Recover the amino acids of this structure.
């Protein structure tokens, strides 16, 4: 009955009197939102009350902690390409969102977070569960706004969605005072927003820069493409592929860009950065033209900046002008949406193959295989390695799964070795490095892409940061495969202590509960393996199990992730051991 | 452009046109505080256009840093436009108020002369105190403090700097372009990336 009413209200020619809370839900429906991750509380109760009548249009997933809610919304946005939506109450509910907001801002994830706020007349009085959420969230949101009058709701929501998903996407927070939620007002329908005068989500592409970029590329003997998540956010995977194929340019990815080009594409030469592949790092300092596409030269990617690609002419394609010339000085700034700039560039570049140059990457790859990869992926003796777990996973999924990773050694290993056939298949906390991200993000990713297998690869440390979300899995019935690579350490920190702090293992020894028993108390099936001969079958069981499954794999305790560009070193000083 | 000059700190006047939104001041302030940069002076007031505010921010940084700051400010969705200029590119003023005992003024002809020399103006004269105003650069307003100090200066206050950009064409035309739905070339132009305008073009493409 209510469902019909929603359409009627939205199509109504005349104004109807409704509450602010109801207007909010109608706005969400109009923005094609179908899933909300949230947690109720006093200051957002009118919205939850209205939601009671809209359950068939708006699926609400009750999380176990607001941080879980926002990471789930991030996972949802990353797997689906849609805007993730979060509900939280005022005060502690809202402050629990802060980590996720910071994560979403730095990783450009489109979110609209709705927080309840105390009655407007109580603002500034230290009212119960009052927190200055607008000030707290300002540095970690693309935009935020406090609503104190219901009349503002339709327009503010329209702006929120516009800002969240256009240009360089990011999180938006709308804080709605309880009186505005309750207030009845004349609702005159909902009009999505496509223009705000102070906001230019994308520029007119400057042709001369495209021409200059093409000229540099055409003259290059050793061109090298670095791509990031911008290719995915711009839905320009096809345009990207066409470009590199025509120009014949070896291309490497940041972890945020993984999957935009299939892992086994002949021009995909691997991962950049601190734990990236050998060739891409070394050859960054040998290429003559560096073409950065939708990436932002994070310090984990560049290593020491004053020794980074100094010999190269740099072309930077980005939609955010403040990224261009920020860390690496560009020769040609191509400011624009790569969905538009890439085809324009493709048109002007000459068809080429840089065979010898590509061969160089292959030679370095062979060295890396010999020094690191073979031993990591195919060990025959000793305890299990993280790499071999990912290798078996690849064999079983064939690269079809969405891999969500947490933060640490397992993240680097999973990103390095996971086979990805499709875009939007690698979900990780890249910029902020938020431990505890994977479990909730995997839940969200599955809601965002219900037809795909979602595997959360986690460390024993990170899993324990948000394991309360097992409750969300239990209650919602969402099918998430949880793979814990247990090295009984906070592995990545231990690795640094081993390499840079004389093996002084200061508080990295972490004890874990019986993960399988824990899962079982949430009625989730699981298993723990510590023998190589059981690994493949256990992974198979996890993947074929109907419903969620937790698999713990005991891996060797003191393995290090290599290659590695030590902090403060140049990318070409990457160490193989 | 030689590298030395490129990296030297100097005073910049950042001019920001914004929507009049609560919280925007905080957002802009954190762009500086996040980098542990001290704002020398900050003025914010309504511009000549209704609903649009103008900020004048004075900061002592390198050209490289001011360019990045401007980019980060302009990135805020409610910021219409950011300009940054050296002191040579702007006409700028600060205003100062000085409160001194009236009896001193009345009696000391010397003070009167000093005020005249320093271009001060009387704002009010009460029985017990007189308030003077002067407008000018920092050194000028500072000077009068020194002058008045021996004569019983009671209170002093200085405003933030306001600055007019010498070669600007005003914001009215620009705003109309901003209000257009179709992005106008000028509006979406990014000076900071413009190789030609910054004299970098020849260096980059010899
Ligand atoms: C919230 C948070 N706290 C601390 C860190 C610092 N940190 C980075 S990796 C890491 C160790 C992770 O250990 P674990 O989850 O067991 O994964 P492993 O490295 O062993 O694979 C820590 C503590 C972080 N990234 N995030």
């Amino acid at each position: 009955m209510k469902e019909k009413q929603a359409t009627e209200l939205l199509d109504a020619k005349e104004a109807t009197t409704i509450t602010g809370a109801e207007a909010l839900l109608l706005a969400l429906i109009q923005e094609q939102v179908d899933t909300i991750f949230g947690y109720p509380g006093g200051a957002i109760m009118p919205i939850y009350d209205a939601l009671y009548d809209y359950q068939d249009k708006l699926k609400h997933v009750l999380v176990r902690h607001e941080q879980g809610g926002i990471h789930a919304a991030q996972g949802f946005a990353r797997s689906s390409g849609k805007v993730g939506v979060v509900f939280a109450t005022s005060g502690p509910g809202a402050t629990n969102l802060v980590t996720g907001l910071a994560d979403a801002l730095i990783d450009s994830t489109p979110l609209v977070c709705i927080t309840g706020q105390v009655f407007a007349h109580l603002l500034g009085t230290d009212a119960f569960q009052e927190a200055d959420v607008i000030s707290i969230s300002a540095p970690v949101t693309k935009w935020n706004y406090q609503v104190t009058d219901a009349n503002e709701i339709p327009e503010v929501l329209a702006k929120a969605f516009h800002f969240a998903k256009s240009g360089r996407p990011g999180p938006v927070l709308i804080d709605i005072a309880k009186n505005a939620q309750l207030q009845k007002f004349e609702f005159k329908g909902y009009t999505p927003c496509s223009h705000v005068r102070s906001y230019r989500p994308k520029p007119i592409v400057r042709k001369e820069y495209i021409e200059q970029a093409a000229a540099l590329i055409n003259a290059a003997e050793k061109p090298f493409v670095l791509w990031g998540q911008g290719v995915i956010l711009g839905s320009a995977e096809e345009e990207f592929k066409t470009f590199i194929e025509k120009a014949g340019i070896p291309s490497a990815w940041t972890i945020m860009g993984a999957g935009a080009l299939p892992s086994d594409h002949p021009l995909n030469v691997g991962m950049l950065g601190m734990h990236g592949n050998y060739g891409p790092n070394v050859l960054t300092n040998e290429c003559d033209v560096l073409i950065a596409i939708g990436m932002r030269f994070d310090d984990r990617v560049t290593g020491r900046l004053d020794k980074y690609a100094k010999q190269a002419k740099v072309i930077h394609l980005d939609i955010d002008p403040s990224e261009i010339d920020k860390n690496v000085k560009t020769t040609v700034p191509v400011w624009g949406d790569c969905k538009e700039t890439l085809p324009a560039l493709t048109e002007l570049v000459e068809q080429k193959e840089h065979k010898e140059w590509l061969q160089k990457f292959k030679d370095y790859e062979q060295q890396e295989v010999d020094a690191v990869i073979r031993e990591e992926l195919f060990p025959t003796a000793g305890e299990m390695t993280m790499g071999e777990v990912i290798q078996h996973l690849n064999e079983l999924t064939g690269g079809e799964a969405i891999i969500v990773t947490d933060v640490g050694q397992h993240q680097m290993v999973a990103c390095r070795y996971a086979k990805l056939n499709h875009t939007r298949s690698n979900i990780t906390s890249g910029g902020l490095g938020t431990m505890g991200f994977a479990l909730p993000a995997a839940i969200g990713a599955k809601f965002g892409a219900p037809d795909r297998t979602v595997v959360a690869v986690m460390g024993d440390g990170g899993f324990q940061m948000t394991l309360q979300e097992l409750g969300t899995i239990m209650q919602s019935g969402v099918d998430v495969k949880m793979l814990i690579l247990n090295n009984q350490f906070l592995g990545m920190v231990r690795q640094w202590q081993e390499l840079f702090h004389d093996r002084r293992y200061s508080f990295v020894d972490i004890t874990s509960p019986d993960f399988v028993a824990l899962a079982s108390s949430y009625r989730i099936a699981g298993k723990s393996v510590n023998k190589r001969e059981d690994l493949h079958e256990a992974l198979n069981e996890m993947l074929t199990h109907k419903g969620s499954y937790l698999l713990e794999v005991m891996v060797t305790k003191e393995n290090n992730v290599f290659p590695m560009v030590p902090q403060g070193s140049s990318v070409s000083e990457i160490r193989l051991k | 452009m030689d590298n030395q000059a490129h990296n030297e700190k100097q005073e910049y006047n950042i001019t920001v046109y914004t929507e009049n939104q609560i919280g925007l001041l905080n957002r802009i302030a954190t762009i500086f505080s996040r980098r542990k940069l001290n704002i020398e002076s900050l003025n914010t007031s309504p511009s000549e256009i209704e609903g649009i505010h103008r900020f004048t921010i004075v900061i002592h940084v390198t050209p490289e840093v001011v360019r990045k700051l401007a980019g980060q400010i302009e990135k805020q969705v409610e910021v219409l436009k950011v300009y940054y200029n050296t002191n040579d590119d702007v006409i700028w003023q600060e205003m100062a108020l000085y409160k001194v005992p009236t009896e001193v003024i009345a009696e000391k002809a010397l003070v009167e002369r000093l005020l005249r020399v320093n271009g001060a103006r009387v704002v009010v004269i009460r029985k017990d105190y007189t308030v003077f105003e002067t407008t000018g650069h920092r050194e000028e307003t500072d000077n009068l403090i020194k002058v008045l100090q021996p004569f019983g200066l009671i209170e002093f206050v200085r405003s933030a700097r306001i600055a007019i950009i010498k070669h600007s064409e005003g914001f009215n035309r620009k705003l109309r372009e901003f209000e257009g739905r179709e992005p106008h070339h000028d509006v979406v132009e990014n000076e900071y990336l413009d190789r030609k305008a910054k004299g970098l073009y020849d260096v980059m493409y010899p």
User: Anything to note?
Assistant: The pocket of thiamine diphosphate is lined by residues A 406-410, 433-436, 459-462, 485, 487, 489-493 (CB under 6 Å). The radius of gyration of chain A is 24 Å. Chain A is about 40% helix and 15% strand.
